[in-house]
Write a structure and sequence with these properties.
Chain lengths: ~110, ~110
C-alpha cells in the first residue's frame, strides 16, 4: 500500500530534550516536506526537500532541522524543543517537485512540549 | 509569495442540500490549485486539483471545483451533502514551475446536519 508513515503519533516531552520525528514514504517520491498545523493558521511549511541531499527552509523553519540522506526518509529534528513548538505535525511527499502533483500526507504527530 | 484565503471558519449545511466552500488565492503566474480534506485524527487526503484546461474539475466523493481566473477563486462544491462529508477542508496553491511549495488556507470546518 502506498503511504507516508510518521512516528510517533503522539509525543509528550520536556523543554530542551532533543527529539526526532521520523517520516518514510514507499512511493519513490522526489519531493518531501514537513508542515505544522495550528488552529486558525492552517498548515505552514517548515522545511522541504526536492531530492536526496537537497533541503531548504519553508515558512517557519526556526527551531527545526531536517536531513534527506535517502530518498524515502525525511526526519524532522527538534534540537531543543520549546513550548511554542507544541503542535500537530505532518509529513508529506509528492511525485515531482514541479507543483502539479498532489501531496500524500502522513497520519500526523501530535507533539506537546511542557 | 503565494497565499490562500478561506473566508469562512465554519460552513453549516443540511444533509441533501448543496455544499459550497469558498477559496480565493494570490500567486504570481499560473496557479496550480488543490483541495484537501481532513477527517478527525487523520492526515490530509487529496480531493481534486486544477492544473490547466477545463475550469470545472471533478474529484473524489462527488466533489467538484470551478477555477475562475478573473476572480482568482477556486470554490469547492458538492450538489448534495452527506453527513459523512463533515470534516475540515483546505484549499492550497502552488506557483507551479520548479517548486512544489504548497500554501494552505486556514481551513473550513464543514458540518452537515442530518
Amino acid at each position: 500500500e502506498a503511504q507516508v508513515t510518521q512516528n510517533p503519533r503522539y509525543l509528550i516531552t520536556v523543554t530542551g530534550k532533543k527529539l526526532t520525528v521520523t517520516c518514510s514514504q514507499n512511493m519513490n517520491h522526489e519531493y518531501m516536506s514537513w508542515y505544522r498545523q495550528d488552529p486558525g493558521l492552517g498548515l505552514r511549511q517548515i522545511y522541504y526537500s526536492m531530492n536526496v541531499e537537497v533541503t531548504d527552509k519553508g515558512d517557519v523553519p526556526e527551531g527545526y532541522k531536517v536531513s534527506r540522506k535517502e530518498k524515502r526518509n525525511f526526519p524532522l529534528i527538534l534540537e531543543s524543543p520549546s513550548p511554542n513548538q507544541t503542535s500537530l505535525y505532518f509529513c508529506a511527499s509528492s511525485l515531482y517537485r514541479t507543483g502539479n502533483t498532489e501531496a500524500f500526507f502522513g497520519q500526523g504527530t501530535r507533539l506537546t512540549v511542557v | 509569495a503565494q497565499s490562500v484565503a478561506q473566508p469562512e471558519d465554519q460552513v453549516n449545511v443540511a444533509e441533501g442540500n448543496p455544499l459550497t466552500v469558498k477559496c480565493t488565492y494570490s500567486v504570481s503566474g499560473n496557479p496550480y490549485l488543490f483541495w484537501y480534506v481532513q477527517y478527525p485524527n487523520r492526515g490530509l487526503q487529496f480531493l481534486l486539483k486544477y492544473i490547466t484546461g477545463d475550469n470545472l474539475v471533478k474529484g473524489s466523493y462527488g466533489f467538484e471545483a470551478e477555477f475562475n481566473k478573473s476572480q482568482t477563486s477556486f470554490h469547492l462544491k458538492k450538489p448534495s451533502a452527506l453527513v459523512s462529508d463533515s470534516a475540515l477542508y483546505f484549499c492550497a496553491v502552488t506557483p507551479g514551475g520548479r517548486n512544489n511549495r504548497l500554501a494552505f488556507g486556514k481551513g473550513n470546518q464543514v458540518v452537515v446536519i442530518p
